[in-house]
Write a structure and sequence with these properties.
Layout: E1 2-7, H1 11-26, E2 30-37, H2 49-56, E3 72-75, H3 78-82, E4 87-90, H4 97-104, E5 113-116, E6 121-124, E7 127-130, H5 131-139, E8 142-147, H6 152-156, E9 161-166, H7 171-181, E10 186-191, H8 194-216, H9 221-242, H10 254-266, H11 268-278, H12 285-293, H13 300-314, H14 321-330, H15 349-355
Parallel strand pairs: 1-2, 1-4, 2-3, 4-5, 5-8, 9-10
Antiparallel strand pairs: 6-7, 8-9
Helix pairs in contact: 4-5, 8-9, 8-10, 8-11, 8-13, 8-14, 10-11, 11-12, 13-14
This protein binds nicotinamide-adenine-dinucleotide (NAD) and SN-glycerol-3-phosphate.
Keywords: NAD, Oxidoreductase
Active site: 204
Protein name: Glycerol-3-phosphate dehydrogenase [NAD(+)]
């Protein structure tokens, strides 16, 4: 019998819990109970978040007003939450994943399988490391990914959307993940391209920040569409340079162009970047993130920095003018208006064509 634990309980983590909990009740090969590790915090009322989730069946801080399912059990103890599960779902902001893996290593079942819903990457001395690779390497388990056009609050309201599971070898495990997540309003398919799927989910956050700058400067729909088109080309080029095996078709799945569109229209990265541009870059992203998202985390600004480190280390900066502009604007080196002034840095069309 399969036992599921969710590592993470933010906005998307809570919606993932709701999706999964509705399915474990229906599928006889899964234990009904879904354990959810919660990074414990004290609410303004003085109560612990975990206790409130278990009493009300609601994550009052990160997904207020939505019942998770009575079979979701919030657990503030990471080691106890993971120890009995053979299916581990990782869904925290990417900057916390390395620390979590260190705490969990050696404390999980040897037959466990993982899936990462985390959009982001780590950059180490040896080079970039995708979060699914971090999980696989540190925990010694197979790890698939699930990415897609998935603004969590909309899925919580059971509005139809799609998602893509990416796997490398183990199709059987991927199908089990599809079964666990798929619902009538959440349509999941799988593709054998774990790197392509994860790169899409990671890199779209940089383009979402660019789209937010465009919105903040009130530049209009044509400019935003141009930024999305250029961003998609850079996403494809960067993914291929890092992982030549990435498939073209992956960019046409939910994890690719669909996620890029939704995130540039309605995501949190877009929203905070819009506020940054409206304030002329005078208020920091940290300050705006705390004020606007109230505990939820941005991934795009950090990812722009991480990708920029890779670009400089490999001598690729000139090939990615949009990624560079997002990094330079978000670190205050350039004003927000530089988001459409990067054409001088563009490589020649000949060079660019050979890359793309
Ligand atoms: N929210 C969405 O719409 C959405 C959709 C798809 C994918 N994602 C991705 O899912 C991942 C998780 O995002 P989310 O929306 O669930 O989270 P979130 O941004 O809503 O919440 C932040 C979470 O981080 C936790 N946290 C804070 N400090 C921590 C620490 N030191 N260690 C561990 N955890 C800590 C908080 O308790 C909270 O659960 C991200 O990579 C995000 O890009 C989000
Ligand atoms: O709100 P964002 O910008 O973190 O994006 C949310 C999801 O990744 C969209 O699929």
């Amino acid at each position: 019998m399969n036992k599921v634990t969710i590592v993470g309980s933010g906005n998307w983590g809570s919606v993932a819990a709701k999706l999964i909990a509705s399915n474990t009740l229906k599928l006889s090969s899964f234990h009904d109970e879904v354990r959810m590790w919660v990074f414990e915090e004290t609410l303004p009322t003085g109560e612990k978040l975990t206790e409130v989730i278990n009493q009300t069946n609601e994550n009052v801080k990160y997904l207020p007003g939505v019942k998770l399912g009575k079979n979701v059990v919030a657990d503030p103890d990471l080691e106890s939450a993971v120890k009995d599960a053979n299916m581990l779902v990782f869904v925290t902001p990417h900057q916390f994943m390395e620390g979590i893996c260190k705490r969990v290593a050696g404390k999980i079942r040897t037959d466990a399988e993982g899936i990462s819903l985390v959009k982001g990457m780590e950059v180490k001395k040896e080079g970039p490391c995708m979060i699914s690779t971090l999980i696989s390497n540190q925990l010694g388990i197979n790890c698939s990914v699930l990415m897609g056009a998935n603004i969590a609050n909309e899925i919580a309201m059971e509005k139809f959307s799609e998602a893509t599971v990416g796997y490398s070898q183990n199709k059987e495990a991927a199908e089990k993940w599809v079964q666990l997540f798929n619902t009538p309003y959440f349509n999941v398919t799988s593709v054998q391209d774990v790197e392509g799927v994860e790169m899409c989910g990671t890199l779209k956050n940089i383009v979402a920040v660019a789209a937010g700058f465009v919105d903040g400067l009130e530049m209009g729909n044509n400019t935003k569409a141009a930024i999305m088109r250029i961003g998609l080309k850079e996403m494809i080029a960067f993914s291929r340079l890092l992982f030549p095996s990435v498939k073209d078709s992956t960019f046409f799945e939910s994890c690719g162009v669909a996620d890029l569109i939704t995130t540039c229209m309605g995501g949190r990265n877009r929203k905070v970047a819009e506020a940054y541009a409206k304030n002329g870059g005078k208020r920091s992203f940290e300050e705006l993130e705390a004020e606007i998202l109230r505990g939820q985390k941005l991934q795009g600004v950090l990812t722009a920095k991480e990708v920029y480190e890779v670009l400089t280390a490999r001598g690729w900066v000139e090939l990615f003018p949009l990624f560079r502009a997002v990094y330079e604007i978000s670190t205050g080196v350039q004003p927000p208006s530089a988001i459409v002034e990067f054409s001088n840095n563009k490589p020649s069309s000949h060079h660019r064509q050979s890359m793309l």
